[in-house]
Amino acid sequence: MPAENPNQFQHNYKRYFFHIGYNGSHYRGWQRQSESVNIQEVLENTLGQILKTPTTIIGCGRTDAQVHASQFFFHADIDKEWDYDLVFRINKVLPPDIAIFEILPVLGHQHARFDAIKRTYDYFIHTYKDPFLSGVSSLYLENNLNLDKMKQAVSLLPRYKDFRAFCKSPDSYEHTICHITSAQLFADTAGDRLRLQISANRFLGRMIRIIVGRLLEIGRGTLQIDEFEHHLITKETPKRIEPAHPQGLFLSKVTYPYLDIPPRTEFSSILQNKVDSWALV
Q1: Coil, strand, or helix at residue 105?
Q2: Which of 90, 168, 259, 269 shows the greatest Cβ crowding within 10 Å of its Cβ?
């Protein structure tokens, strides 16, 4: 269990969970990779600089280029003790689009990725041009999307387990089973701001963005609900797969058997716009 006030005292712990958030607009995703700016590398370099020792971190998952996280966890094994405010020092060095919220010492070998039992994502869409939403919501200049049919399609998702048909490269996985526990579509009163919220134990590569792309086709009337469900039933991958834009996607909540805390920050007030009061479509 996390100790009290873990950020400013001497301790005997070795493994720590870091609770963070980031705006992914200027990064090629979470995962460290050569010749690209990524979030993992920035964090590892920052920790190594402050702790004065190379530090490897393990994230709770991977996010694609330009995808955001309002809640994300990684763990690190740190032998070096500190008696200063490490959260403050890390945040002072990190760029403004990555934030450390808290550092939680944990017992044993609790794992940020493998121990997570539920991940929740939010995908935001706006259907009118708005410079203040650029980068944190996906712009689709659409008129008269059929929200009722889109909602019907969303309601089908928790009924199925195999999402092979909604994955860019299904053969790269040992299996394509995902247990979706909830999926809801919200809209503001004008119907020009949408939010898909979906929770599951795991997600496949670009799975949510592919689902959103298909939902938009349903809203336009170019894809029928029975065709959408056909792919869920047969697991046949469509000939054409077009994932929705990345910038509307947020990893918004990660839950562990031993750690279930609310996100430290909500989405920006402009994006959020009291989103929790939006009506279910």
Answers
A1: strand
A2: 90
At position 22, the amino acid (one-letter code) is Y
Cβ contacts of residue 192 below 8 Å, gap of 6+? Answer: 126, 127, 128
- Any residues with CB less than 8 A from the CB of 262 and at least 6 apart, and which? 253
Active site residues: 64
Q: What contacts 195, CB < 8 A, 6 or more positions away? A: 122, 123, 124, 125, 185, 186, 187, 275, 278
pTM passes above 0.85: yes
Q: Locate the domains of the chain by residue range.
A: 15-106, 118-258
Q: Render pLDDT for 194-225 as a digit per residue (tens, 0 to 9).
A: 999 999 999 999 999 999 999 999 999 999 99
What burial class does residue 152 get, using C-beta atoms within 10 Å of its C-beta: 0-12 exposed, 13-18 middle, 19+ buried?
Answer: middle
Task: Specify the range with the lowest mean pLDDT, choosing from 28-32, 236-240, 241-245.
Answer: 236-240
Give the orientation angle of helix 39-51 with respect to helix 86-93, to 10 degrees.
130
Same fold: 15-106 with 118-258? yes
CA 147 to chain CA centroid, Å, is: 24
State the Cα–Cα distance between residues 251 and 148, nearest whole angstrom: 25
Please give the structure tokens belonging to residue 9: 């005292």
CA distances from 30 to 57, 66, 169, 170 (A): 11, 10, 19, 21
pLDDT of residue 107: 85
Structure tokens at 228: 């959408």
Q: What is the CATH number of domain 118-258?
A: 3.30.70.660
Residue type, 4: E
Q: Which fold has domain 15-106?
A: Alpha-Beta Plaits (3.30.70)
Burial of 27 (0-12, 13-18, 19+ CB in 10 A): buried
Sign of the CA dihedral 119, 264, 83, 6? negative
Distance CA 270, CA 33 (A): 32
